[in-house]
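Hi support team,

I'm opening this ticket because the web form for multi-chain structure prediction keeps timing out on my end. I have pasted the exact lines I submitted so you can reproduce it. The total is 917 residues across two entries, so I didn't expect it to be a heavy job. Is there a limit I'm missing, or should I split the entries? Thanks in advance, R.K.
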Amino acid sequence: MNTITVNEKEYSIPDNLLEISLLTYLREHLHLTGTKNGCEKGLCGSCTVIADGSAVRSCKIPLNRALGKRIITIEGLQDPRTKTLHPIQQSFVDAGAIQCGFCTPGMVMSSYGLLLKNPEPSREQIKKALKGNLCRCTGYQQIFDAVELAASRISDSGMILKK
Amino acid sequence: MERVKAFRNDAYAKVTGQAKYADDFSFPGMLHMVPVYSDFTAAEQITVDTEKALKVPGCIRIFTAEDVPGSWKFGQISQDYPILIRDTVKSWGDAAALVTAESREAALKAAELVEIKGKPVKPILSIDEAVDPFSRIIPDEGDSNTVVHHRLRHGDPEQAFTESELIIEDDFETQTIEQAYMEPESAVCVPRHDGVIEIYGSMQHPFSTRRFTAAFLGEPLSNIEVYTIAVGGGFGGKDDNAAAVCARAALGARLLNRPVKLTYKREWSIRESYKRHPYKLHYKVGFSSEGKIEGVKASIYADSGAYLSVTPWVTWRSTAQCCGAYAVEKAHADIYGVATNHVFNGAMRGFGSPQVNFAIEQIIDMAAYKLGIHPLGMRRMNLIKQNGETVTGQVMDKHTVSIEEVMDKVVHEIGFRKKFEACSRGKAADDSDELYGIGLAVSYRGSSLGAEGMDFCSAIINGQYDGSLLLETGIHENGQGSESVMMLVLAEELGVKLERIRYRRSSTSNIPDSGTTVATRGTIMGGSSVVLAAEKFKAHLSKHLADRLRCKPEEVNFHDDKIWGLTYDYSLTWEDAMKELYLQRITPYAFGTYQAPDVSWDDTTGQGDAYFTYVYSCQAAEVSVSRKTGKIRVLNVVAAHDIGKAINKAMVLGQMYGGITQGMGMALMEEVTDDEGKISSLNFDSYKIPRSTDAPEITGIIVENSDPQSLTGAKGIGEPSLEIIAPAIANAVFNATGIRCKKMPLRINPKELS
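Hello R.K., no limit was hit. The queue was backed up. Here is the completed structure from your submission:
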């Protein structure tokens, strides 16, 4: 049986869904609507999720290529018991990095993907890592601030990011 | 950088993915709708054949204009915009039919099988062709493609030109810009058991959406209830056609009596939605040998596209601000809006000012260069002073005119004078590939609608039995943070902690129509309405609580999250106070409507008090230009804006950064392109907006000269932040290369560099 793990929960995938995109599966079948659809062509990054430890564009991935993978979406970042925000989320809130919020889940997930690979990124590295995520509201400044803040908070707390 | 604490009531919902945008809503039995377009730019005798499409399994019904119970076209000024076309196609963005099906897949499949036939007409795609007296007339009404003509008559510049030392006469051109909000249009409409259609839509203006929908359905406004939900950006762009998207889904919901969702693909969004007007500007400006502006003559054309939308208002702002922030004694300008067969143009952040600023702020630098005067001295000599008069004859004596103050702050922060001396002016200091330049621009911007329209806004404060407070205003949250600003204003007015206040999800059936959330009017109008409501609320509470507080009503105080008598001996918690009022059968409720101060305008002369107050702005940009490739990079930006008072500092800065980055996109990379009127830049691969790697470092400076025309002292920042970065960059590019770019997006041909 084909399965996929989303936010630590395993789902069986029926054959008739193998051709749909991971984005459509998350939004329409699992009702995880935090992952957004901005362009459906992998150009805007609003649909970014983590797949086996890497930030990916879920609109570009057919479900049959996501089988067996561990997916983390924006809904999977909070502490499941306490509902405490993940330090990346809290940093986006504190740095004023949120306006319309449509790009925010994708930005947070791309930042997560960056910090998994590089826990102490420079501002230039942050800019490069977020290149695939468009934001029309913020001019990116406070998003860069948020990722810097998150990196220092995570490193200060000794927290290990889950893949 | 100083980090200021941000407050947003929606931050938690947005950062966790819980915030619901239109496409995130689902209802039992919901159908899916998709639009169908013809492939014509202009055509007549349109027929729509749905026979094959209807055979697709799951396809329920296909709507055309024939099915519309109300008016198939509507609009804010002229009711000429077809929500569904009938017989005639006037632009490639026109929607001809709506397919409704059980699933989106089925709807998409059926849409491909709808056949639209018609007799093509040669499209008119340039202003020159459109204004030719022998050209076909595009609008249904009127006898000309010139859909609006504003005049500014303020003395005779011709006579001034004869005495001028220098005359700059030149042409400038700006391009079509897409708002490119990250969330494409979407609407979910739900028929309610009581006959009301509920709308959950991605739109900028619930009241405008309600007007479009009610007109389309031919029903009273009270039948349509539009809710505020999370909106993924608007930037002016989610009015007419975003409202039409809601109206179309509502048509399906009404006629099929089931919930209907209509969510746009990015390609449909860019194809159909109105954009920023491209302008052609011709200016003639005379200067004295000292650099004083002696006279301005301008003739300006805006391409309105196929429908009027708000073209008369956009071009009106261009009229009132056509001479920039300068005191010009003799000015004569004609500003025209012209219909073509392009997809229509309408509101976008800036609204007619970025185009005129692009010209005038370069002309000042061009003249300074020719006269050998420093661009700062040139500006200082001509800027409007306190109690000075604008080109519309308005005397600026009711607020602080701070244009020099904001300019000085930017000049100091960025170190303009030294850097200006270090500009490459076409010659790199060594063998470096990079040419360096710095430039700046200034503006004044009329706040809110001005003489464009009626200006008022309402707020409701509804105190609850347990001491909690509900707040609602007629200003709409598009992502800019307006709800948070309103909550901060109320918390300050009532002296309560923020946690006590909940912003109520607004509904058009509850709060009175307060106009649209445009024109940087959210904070100034909404904030003022909250102050008025809070004053009434406090007076009402004071009257009924004075006895308990052992004082007179006028001696009751509100601070530190309590209600106090004359001395600290007597106080009430909000919990006790609210309970007390309910026990007295008094409702702790207040309603306030703020009416904007008077403005005036004479259409024949373009004279009057155009706006009741103004925001003052200066932005400077440093650029590098590659000698090899001509590529322009913005390295650093400093911006200062006098916004009266900052209510939510982090969000004010966020607006500055965002506006500057959008303006930089306009200056350097963005352009809606088309082939015979068919838009070719339909997604972010061909319509390129600034990415994180394009973003310069930006320093924002907030200047606060509290404005007596606003009850909070605050004005606004949304649009001022965008309207001058393009000329600042163009001036910097000139100082780097010696090449003057008079057309956007700015392009440097490396062959022209020595």
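A quick check on our side: Chain A touches chain B through 55 residues (CB under 8 Å). Let us know if the file doesn't open in your viewer.
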